[in-house]
C-alpha cells in the first residue's frame, strides 16, 4: 500500500498543519527534546524523518552525522531542499527495509511514526541490529489511548472522550484530512514488553501534560489534562540479550 503522505492533497494539508504552531510543537517536541541523549560526536538515524524538521538542530547539538529515512519521496524531496547541510543525508526507505542499512548508529530517533508500522517486533529487532552498544532508541507515537478506537475521524477532531477497543490490538482505518489513514494499535503493556524482549531497557517514559500558559494560547490542549495525545519512550540497547 502507498504512503498516504505521498498523496498530494494530504501532503499539502499536513504541511499546512506543520507550518502553524501545533500539538507537536506544544507537547511532543518539548518532551522529545527533554529526552534527547547527549548528541556530541554521535551518529543519528531518524526513522520516518518526514521533511527533516529536526536534522539541523541535531547537527547543532554536535551530532557527527544525521541520516533521515522516510518512505515518502515527497517528504524526502522537501527535506533535501529545506533541511540540508554538512553531515546531513536523506534516503527514501521504508522502515520495513531497515535491514538493508549496513551502517551502525549511536542514536535511533523517531517522531510520530511507529503507530504506522504493523510489525513492531521486527522493527525493534532491526533497530537493535544497527545500534552501537549502549545506543539509544528515542521515539514518540500516538498514545495507545488514541490509537485504540475504530473509525476515528481525525486525531484532533471529535469527542475526545470517545474511547473503545483498547484490549483489541491491530489495524485501524481512520480519516485524517479526509483521506484513509491506516495505523496499528498496541497496548502500552505490549509496547513495553516488545522493547524488553528485543533487548532494550526502558529508561524513561513521558505522556506530555500541557502547561497552563500554553493552554491559554491553544485551548485544544486542555484535552491533554484529561488524557495524553502522545507517548514518548527512551530505551537503551542492552549489550547482550
Ligand atoms: C506524522 S509524520 C512525522 C514526520 C517526522 N518524524 C516529524 O516529526 O516531522 C509521519 C512520517 O512517517 C512516514 N512513514 C509512515 N510509514 C512509514 C514507513 N513504513 N517507513 C518509513 N516512513 C514511514 C511518513 O511518510 C511521514 O513522513
Describe what this molecule looks like in 3D.
By secondary structure, the chain is α/β, with parallel strands linked by helices. The protein has a single domain, classed as Rossmann fold, CATH 3.40.50.150. It has eight helices and nine strands. The radius of gyration is 17 Å and the shape is globular. It starts with 7 loop residues before the first helix and ends with a strand. S-adenosylmethionine (SAM) binds next to loops.
Query: Largest beta sheet: what is the strand line-up?
Result: 3-2-1-4-5-9-8
Low-confidence parts:
none
The major pleated sheet works out as: 7 strands, mixed
- Per CATH, the class reads Alpha Beta
According to CATH, what is the topology? Rossmann fold
Tell the overall outline.
globular
State the CATH architecture: 3-Layer(aba) Sandwich
Q: Radius of gyration, Cα only, in angstroms?
A: 17 Å
State the CATH superfamily name: Vaccinia Virus protein VP39
Count of strand segments: 9
User: Helix and strand string, N-terminal first?
Assistant: HHEHEHEEHEHEEHEHE
Question: Which small compounds were modeled alongside the protein?
Answer: S-adenosylmethionine
Mean pLDDT: 91
Helix fraction by DSSP (H/I, runs of at least 4):
25-40%
Amino acid at each position: 500500500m502507498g504512503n498516504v503522505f505521498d498523496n498530494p492533497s494530504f501532503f499539502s494539508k499536513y504541511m499546512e498543519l506543520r507550518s502553524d504552531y501545533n500539538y507537536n510543537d506544544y507537547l511532543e517536541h518539548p518532551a522529545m527534546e527533554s529526552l534527547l541523549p547527549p548528541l556530541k560526536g554521535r551518529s543519528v538515524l531518524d526513522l520516518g524523518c518526514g521533511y527533516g524538521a529536526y536534522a539541523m538542530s541535531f547537527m547543532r547539538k554536535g551530532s557527527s552525522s544525521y541520516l533521515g529515512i522516510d518512505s515518502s519521496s515527497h517528504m524526502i524531496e522537501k527535506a533535501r531542499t529545506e533541511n540540508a547541510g554538512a553531515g546531513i543525508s536523506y534516503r527514501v526507505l521504508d522502515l520495513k527495509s531497515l535491514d538493508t542499512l549496513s551502517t551502525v548508529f549511536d542514536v535511533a530517533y523517531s517522531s510520530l511514526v511507529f503507530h504506522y508500522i504493523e510489525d513492531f517486533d521486527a522493527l525493534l529487532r532491526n533497530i537493535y541490529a544497527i545500534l552501537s552498544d549502549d545506543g539509544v532508541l528515542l521515539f514518540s507515537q500516538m498514545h495507545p489511548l488514541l490509537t485504540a478506537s475504530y473509525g476515528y475521524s481525525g486525531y484532533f477532531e471529535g469527542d475526545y472522550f470517545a474511547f473503545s477497543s483498547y484490549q483489541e490490538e491491530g489495524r485501524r482505518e481512520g480519516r485524517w484530512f479526509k483521506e484513509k489513514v491506516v495505523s496499528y494499535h498496541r497496548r502500552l503493556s505490549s509496547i513495553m514488553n516488545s522493547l524488553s524482549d528485543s533487548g532494550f531497557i526502558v529508561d524513561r517514559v513521558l505522556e506530555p501534560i500541557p502547561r497552563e500558559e500554553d493552554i491559554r494560547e491553544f485551548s485544544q490542549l486542555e484535552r491533554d489534562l484529561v488524557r495524553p495525545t502522545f507517548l514518548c519512550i527512551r530505551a537503551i540497547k542492552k549489550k547482550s540479550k
